[in-house]
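User: I'm curious whether this sequence folds into something compact or stays loose and floppy. Could you predict its structure so I can see for myself?
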Amino acid sequence: VIYRIKRKGGGRQTLLASQNEGVEGLSLDWVSQNLYYIDSRKGTLNVLNVDKPEYRKVLLKDLNRPRAIVVHPNKGYVFFSEWDRPANISRAYLDGSHVMVFRNVLLGWPNGLSIDYQTDRIYWCDALLDH
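Assistant: Here's the prediction. I'll summarize afterward.
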């Protein structure tokens, strides 16, 4: 289930209510008001518009144990991690096209993706390697 509330609290609204979803991570594109999320049960990367949450779309499927996600709206990218062996961090366009896997990066279970928008660096923590 995905909810939202106002910054000052109150006004809780359900954006996604499904017993079949396994939401692991989400990231908001503040430019388009699209909310990107990972469904670990289905192995998908999905998007919904926060103003029209009934409009949902699967962007990528058949992902291997997807976990974390972060968007870079100004560059038009979504980054996500997968825990399968070998674990990886990948980048795609916001429409799910042009997937690029970052190679030669030692990863165990990449979690908690974050972006420094000033320097264009990606940060993550690793639940297996304690990095």
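Summary: The radius of gyration is 15 Å. The chain has one domain: 21-126.
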